[in-house]
Write a structure and sequence with these properties.
The chain has a 5-stranded mixed sheet with strand order 1-2-3-5-4, with helices on one face. A two-stranded antiparallel sheet has the order 6-7. By secondary structure, it is an alpha+beta fold. It contains 2 helices and 7 strands; from the N terminus they run βαββαββββ. The N and C termini lie far apart (48 Å). The chain is globular, with a radius of gyration of 18 Å. Helix 1 packs across helix 2. Bound molecules: zinc ion (ZN). Zinc ion binds next to strand 3. The site of zinc ion has 5 residues, from strand 3.
């Protein structure tokens, strides 16, 4: 069963992480271990941490009874989430982040805004792009 540690803030979490959480929760449940999220956008992380943009989640591991089960859980989550998620076993928690590999994703349908033809590529990640703030006055 999924639960959040007191104080965990999820405002701004990216949809990709909901998929990761769903998969990880299923794996924990399969091993009869309570699934507790200990951090999403809250807490203090490294300067360029994906936590600050809602693309990382920390999960409790102290309730996993043995290191063997811990390893099995991590391996299964990794295999089910695939290459675009990093699943990292830290000393006191499991860190999962969305980190797509490569810099481009295929565009399978033309996009009206760009007019790019099928099969062209676009940059998948625009983390460093600043959003324009447009103020509206009526
Ligand atoms: Zn983390």
């Amino acid at each position: 069963m999924l639960s959040l540690k007191t104080g965990v803030f999820v405002g701004g979490i990216k949809p990709e992480m909901l998929l990761a959480i769903a998969v990880a929760d299923q794996v924990y449940t399969q091993f009869n271990v309570a699934f507790v999220i200990t951090s999403v956008l809250d807490g203090v992380h490294t300067a360029r941490s994906l936590h600050y943009v809602g693309e990382a989640v920390d999960i409790r591991i102290v309730n996993i009874p043995t290191t063997a089960i811990r390893s099995s859980i991590v391996a299964l989550i990794k295999s089910r989430l695939g290459i675009h998620f990093d699943v990292i076993l830290e000393s006191d928690h499991l860190h999962i982040e969305f980190d797509p590999k490569g810099t481009a994703i295929p565009v399978t349908t033309p996009r009206p805004t760009t007019g790019q033809a099928e099969g062209r590529y676009e940059v998948a990640r625009k983390r460093k792009t600043k959003r324009k703030v447009v103020s509206r006055k009526s």
